[in-house]
């Protein structure tokens, strides 16, 4: 992903590399032959009369979205509604539909690994974050909170982690091993309740919690206004690159509800075509 996106946004992705082009659905037909002279005028008038009588404009051809298997159940309907409401997404979604969100496996250790990876990648470049995570991930036999707590601090520091990130990872592991998180209740909990619970863990910001709601829990209506990539994408797609405030972004996103996650996702994907700053 472009450098304009935040670290965790890039690191959580599991995307296909090639986007299928949209396919127009409809029967094949021979090329039309334009009538001439009076015949042309007659045909044109007849068509206009037919449209006026029906009170409807000619329907636009439907677009076949190339969504991959495993997308959230709401994804296709969200795409259809967003394309009807938003001129930018009407263009972006058909182009990028094959790069839809594929939620992560729902289990305790995967949730821990997702949050641990976000901590490791904080405040460093995307490439460096990936390298650091790969080094750290080799230390435990499996990425579980119990095994991370057994690691030696010196070994974690030798892998490249700062003292602060080591503390954050230990606190995260303790939240899981001591059952401080209500994971079994997340399905019924509101987004804001989960965000508040995750922010009780040292080193986890609202931005990280919102990304967790998107990538791990696949919540449909998350709008991460603290995400630099989202703000940059709104700037480029809606304001010709002019600076965008949080209130500007929030106003644009009014048309996205209740599918802000899906809209945000394709705004992020659009940045991949932008030159790296």
From TrEMBL:
Gene source species: Comamonas testosteroni (Pseudomonas testosteroni)
Pfam families: HhH-GPD
BP GO terms, sorted: base-excision repair, AP site formation; DNA alkylation repair
SMART domains noted in UniProt: ENDO3c (SM00478)
InterPro entries in UniProt: Alkylbase_DNA_Glycosylase/TA (IPR051912), DNA_glycosylase (IPR011257), HhH-GPD_domain (IPR003265)
Family matches, as CDD domains: ENDO3c
Domain HhH-GPD: 120-272
Manganese is among the record's keywords: no
Domain of life from the UniProt record: Bacteria
Protein name per Swiss-Prot or TrEMBL: DNA-3-methyladenine glycosylase II
Entry keyword set: DNA damage, DNA repair
Keyword DNA repair: yes
Enzyme nomenclature, EC number: 3.2.2.21
Reactions it catalyzes: Hydrolysis of alkylated DNA, releasing 3-methyladenine, 3-methylguanine, 7-methylguanine and 7-methyladenine
A Gene Ontology cellular-component term: cytoplasm
One example GO MF annotation: DNA-3-methyladenine glycosylase activity
Family: Belongs to the alkylbase DNA glycosidase AlkA family.
